[in-house]
Design brief:
Oligomer: single chain
Number of helices: 4
Number of strands: 4
Structural class: alpha+beta
Length: about 90
């Protein structure tokens, strides 16, 4: 582990590595498009089990809330494009 000003700093992992190792669940692109989210989303396996699980329709509900939260955090500009968002590639 590297040392930082506040002590040990855990090694960083990429999004792809976290998905591959099972820490994150990669939300399917079709679900993101349906929810109108223009960026990749990864959900921790714990959050997935708690909020999505095997319940049909829960992913849509969760993504709708994510979209509302993002829209609130990054209001649309006059051009209708959300600002401050970055596209994440796996």
């Amino acid at each position: 582990m590297n040392k930082g000003p506040s002590g040990p700093v855990p090694p960083t992992s990429t999004r792809a590595q976290l998905i591959e190792s099972g820490v994150l669940v990669d939300v399917p692109a079709l679900a993101l498009q349906t929810a109108g989210l223009p960026f990749a989303v990864g959900v921790t396996t714990t959050a997935w089990a708690m909020y999505v699980g095997d319940l049909e329709g829960q992913l849509e509900t969760v993504l709708t809330e994510v979209g509302r939260t993002v829209a609130h955090m990054y209001p649309e500009s006059e051009s209708g494009v959300a600002t401050g968002l970055s596209t994440i590639s796996g």
